[in-house]
Amino acid sequence: MKFSTKNILSVLLVCMMVSCSKDKPSAPPEVGGPSKPDDEKPIETKPGGNVLAWVDAHSNVFGTYGKFSDKAEIVKILDKLKDAGVTGLVIDVKPSTGHTMYPSAIRKDLTTRDGKTRPTDYVEFLIAEAKKRQMKSYLSIVTFVEGDAHKQVGFVYDNPAYKEKNESFVVANEQGDIRRISTVQNAVFVNPAQPEAQERALDLVKEITGKFQLDGLILDYCRYNDINADFSDYSKEKFIEFLKTKFNDNAAANMDFPKDIVSSWKSNNGQIVPNVTGKYYKQWLYFRASVIQGFVKKARAAVKSVKPNAEFGAYVGAWYGSYYNVGVNWASKNYDPFQDYNLRMDWAYPGYGETGYFEELDLLMTGNYFTQIMLSENPATAGMKYHWWSMEGSLNGIEYITKNTRPIYGSMDIGNINYKSKEEISRGIKYMLGRTSGGVMLFDVVHMYVPQYNYLKQELFDAVKAGVKN
Predict the structure, then answer these.
(1) Greatest CA separation for the chain
(2) What proportion of the chain, given as a percentage, has pLDDT over 70?
(3) pTM of this prediction?
């Protein structure tokens, strides 16, 4: 969805952008969710057994200790992955600068950064080497992030008119000031509701799908920045149109924007979040989720129009109960959070369930980035079934809200999560493989071969192998 060092600060220094991480929870871990109802039948899952390793572009190719700028090193690492039981790669081909990791006809390609140069045929080489080892190759894009504000580089800086029109506007502080996102943070998100932002992303999806012998395409960061986005004039216009069309609300044109959505803001763990919400807040969440669902439908159609047999998937954070903050409803369209009296999604509005996009996917990767594996390991969660901040509890919830009709890959961040030992990493992998319908995704390969980029300060291939093969 998608940090390569011991802590977040050092991650930003090494990777410079959001693409070297998968989504992290926007709220601290909390205990929540009811116990299992007596009349609820357990979900039956047939384990998938696939093991995918994510290959972030910035940290592996251009990072201080990354080795993927050297073909000989790539070969050595892929041999180790194969030996560890890895069955496929997720290769980041459009990182957060918006540039590509291959020569593109429609974008600038990223060839050199911080003194390192990538092989010209980097993507083709990885795919070919993966195939030699009977590994699948999924190609991923950082969908709605298009630049690095700190270094003033990226697709938005190559195209000033595009930046002017499409850059996301966010609430920047507790006072509610609305600013361009490039003045607030490094990652320059564009507004997913903007037609041009969608069209440029879809053009890239088609180019990648047609250019490479991929097994599938994965959307990463196919979302809004956070709950503080997007508050542009264009989003206001589209929201009013949504309210009129969907709810016949002709008074919406006279709303006090944005106060009728969020009346006041506060800071929580460094994030700007609603303090007091307005009368249109829940409809706003509905609107944003419908925007993302609409794009996902278009992206699927784009992939299938070029290669009908290519798989189409997405990475998302596993914490569904608060993932609405980024405008994404990755549940089944047949799951209605408003009517769910079991999980109690109090933020949902009537009809919100129709924005679910799970059925548009061929596979889903969820970031189950927690040290707690089993619910029974914490007295506070031992009596629960659904708990978004543990592997078992989150997978229970994921299967429940998706109806488990497509392969689901549980995901582990093996570098940035502070597992106390290699054995805990192995145990988590083993649990995921025995439990999920698709398998497990491991973020990131750089954590496996660079001791400086994980908490245990050791290579982790043996930990992966123990989890896969035992």
Answers:
(1) 64
(2) 90
(3) 0.92
